[in-house]
Design brief:
Radius of gyration: 23 Å
Oligomer: single chain
Number of helices: 15
Number of strands: 20
Helix content: 25-40%
Strand order of the largest sheet: 2-1-5-3-4
Structural class: alpha+beta
């Protein structure tokens, strides 16, 4: 193994002597690249956004925006990074990138603190290969999608406290297409960096990455105390805010066995290390309930790193994916050095942040059975529209035939120590007519599901009320669809 290095703005930089827990943000700033800022250290403001070359969906390579404050620098060993200083090209410090130019001329920057992060998120969308295919210069009626094909959701993880978002939006909707001479556009046509094994040890702490699943599972058997990370969107917060440190961190984000997506005749299997953005783009709406989840899951910056394996692995009762996967009757494929086992997600959680996963086991994949239910919805009740923790999350997957409910699956988050199925509500719906009377009775049952608590996000009474209201909302939408 070679000494860990990151290619930053075209130049290789050794990670040493940084500690294994050192974030990419601190690594860059220590090298004078101070355009990358720390705003929140939790992945909520986007001031630290950078671009990373990742395996592409429609091209060999995609430029992906991520939160530099959450990723350990060692996690980018062998990879390529571009910061706001490097967007215009190597050796061109006085030249503005087209995104930077539009931000400048349209007044998208005031104090400038958040600007480099906005620029990097905007550049990732600027280089999205299929963006221009959705462009319609004659259509300026969609407030969230520009006539140039720009998806404003790409900026959902970036906050500005002084400029106001209108000039930033104007800049985003004004950028054109990359030119053929643009080096970052040309880079998309080449293969992404090849995953490399990493063994980085400093001061008794280690960051380790193996090339295969088998090697990783054997390592986990030797180091059952190790922290396993993929996108590090959860662990990074623990390191920054709670000063958590680990003797050993094992990265699984680049294991090919955890990055497969297979669509079969009776199931869809989703690799545990695929990012939510990759899943969203590869499935392209094939699983409507997941398609409803993705835009409401944190922000694009977080979804570019977060994984289903990580969201389930933390065992959080307020994670957004478990209610959806419970409604889909998903199972998790658990692997260790001795083999694999399939566990229904409804049997996976055993307590607050606890599960049946044994020491040395990894979540290899999530398996969703087919066919899918026709009536689905994901309702996230939170104080902010984007990039917020849910007070209550409710996922529905219901089969209705000839006016009768054949099967009902309802997943809940935020109302118990674990994500749960609303079993009593499901039973109150199944076999009954899909009518206002049935739904109102079931909504009363749903309000009593779980053991909601009072906390800073919501009261127990509010959570219970939102459960019942969510089912009534679903019924209203289904009857509207029929009448229209």
């Amino acid at each position: 193994m070679t000494a860990p290095r990151i290619t930053v703005n075209g130049t290789e930089a050794p990670i040493s002597p940084a500690a294994p827990h050192t974030t990419v943000l601190d690594f860059l700033r220590e090298r004078g690249l101070t355009g990358t800022k720390e705003g929140c250290a939790e992945g909520e403001c986007g001031a630290c956004a950078i671009l990373v070359a990742r395996p592409g969906t429609n091209e060999p390579t995609d430029w992906v925006a991520v939160n530099a404050c959450l990723l350990p620098a060692a996690a980018l060993d062998g990879q390529e990074v571009v910061t706001s200083e490097g967007l215009a090209g190597v050796g061109r410090p006085d030249t503005l990138h087209p995104v930077q130019e539009e931000m400048a001329v349209r007044g998208g920057s005031q104090c400038g603190y958040c600007t480099p992060g906005f620029v990097c998120s905007m550049a990732a969308e600027y280089y999205r290969p299929d963006r221009c295919a959705h462009a319609d210069p004659a259509d300026d009626t969609d407030p969230e999608h520009g006539p140039n094909g720009f998806d404003l959701h790409a900026l959902s993880g970036n906050l500005c406290r002084c400029t106001g978002y209108r000039p930033i939006r104007d800049a985003a909707f004004a950028v054109g297409a990359p030119t053929e001479e643009d080096p970052l556009a040309q880079r998309r046509e080449q293969s992404p960096p090849v995953p490399v094994a990493t063994e980085y040890v400093q001061d008794g702490s280690a960051f380790l990455r193996r090339n295969t699943l088998g090697e990783t599972l054997r390592l986990l058997r030797e180091r059952p105390d190790a922290v396993v990370v993929a996108g590090s969107t959860d662990w990074g917060v623990e390191v920054n805010i709670r000063a958590r440190r680990a003797d050993c961190v094992i990265a699984v984000d680049r294991l090919p066995e955890l990055r497969e997506l297979r669509v079969g005749s009776d199931s869809i299997e989703i690799g545990a290390a695929l990012t939510l953005t990759e899943i969203e783009r590869r499935l392209d709406g094939r699983v409507p309930l997941l398609a409803e989840l993705f835009p409401q899951f944190a922000s694009r910056l977080i979804r570019n790193g977060a994984t289903l394996g990580g969201n389930l692995g933390t065992g959080s009762p307020i994670g957004d994916s478990p209610p959806v996967l419970l409604a889909l009757e998903a199972s998790v494929v658990l692997a260790d050095a001795d083999g694999e086992r399939l566990v229904p997600l409804a049997e996976y959680f055993t307590g607050y942040r606890q599960s049946v996963r044994r020491p040395g086991e990894l979540i290899r994949a999530v398996r969703v059975p087919l066919p899918l239910s026709q009536v689905v919805a994901f309702h996230k009740i939170a104080k902010r529209r984007f990039d917020d923790i849910s007070s209550v999350a409710v996922a529905f997957a219901i089969e209705i035939e000839d006016g009768l409910v054949g099967k009902a699956r309802i997943g809940l988050g935020g109302v118990a120590a674990t994500p749960i199925r609303a079993l009593s509500t499901e039973a109150s719906l199944e076999g009954r007519p899909w009518t206002a009377e049935t739904v109102e009775a079931a909504a009363r049952v749903l309000r009593a599901e779980g053991t909601p608590l009072n906390d800073q996000r919501a009261s127990a009474a509010y959570r219970s009320a939102m459960l019942g209201q969510s089912l009534l909302k679903l019924y209203a939408h289904t009857t509207e669809a029929v009448s229209s």
